[in-house]
Design goal:
alpha/beta; Arc Repressor Mutant, subunit A; 4-stranded mixed sheet; two-stranded parallel sheet; 6 helices
């Protein structure tokens, strides 16, 4: 799949966003350098082209930037374009995860229950570990049982997850 992408500055560093005509396809959290962030984009989308974002992507960028400065932004109106490689179970997990408001959290088990599969907490964690659109699909808001951080596969690992939760004002147990 060919995609267009753009880098943009946030309070936590330079992020990247990719899109198709149908919606946002990916978001990347900051790498140590912009070149490393670009390299991650081109690994996922080898034919991608860096370009200025169209209005719907500029809207998504504005929301992400605001959210990462502590504004309680609702990003559920941003159109997403999951390619065919994203399984239906993951999409259900992402749909529930998108409903978690800034400053609040759910556990992996609570997300599993909300998708109607209460014994699938581990599978929820695996789906979120493959989330191609972090922040818009706020996987950082999903925690392990009893408030444990759980994992986080983005650059910086759980330190980045905790930083994002702190920016949003989430209280951890």
């Amino acid at each position: 799949m060919a995609a267009s992408y753009s880098l943009f500055e946030t309070a936590i560093g330079t992020c990247a966003i990719a899109w198709s005509e149908r919606g946002v396809t990916s978001v990347w959290l900051p790498e140590p350098t912009n070149q490393q962030t670009r390299a991650r984009v081109t690994r996922r989308f080898p034919l991608s082209i860096e370009s200025a974002p169209p209005p719907f992507v500029a809207h998504a960028i504005d929301g992400i930037v605001a959210l990462l400065t502590g504004e309680a932004r609702d990003l559920t109106d941003i159109a997403l374009d999951f390619d065919d490689s994203v399984p239906a179970f993951h999409r259900r997990v992402y749909d529930v995860t998108r409903t978690i408001k800034p400053g609040t959290t759910l556990s992996y088990g609570e997300v599993a229950a909300r998708i109607g599969e209460p014994d699938a907490a581990r599978a929820v964690g695996q789906a979120l570990g493959r989330n191609p659109i972090p922040i818009i699909v706020p996987c950082h808001r999903v925690l392990a049982a009893r408030g444990g951080t759980g994992g986080f596969t983005a650059p910086g690992g759980t330190a980045t997850k905790l930083q994002m939760l702190a920016i949003e004002g989430a209280r951890l147990l």
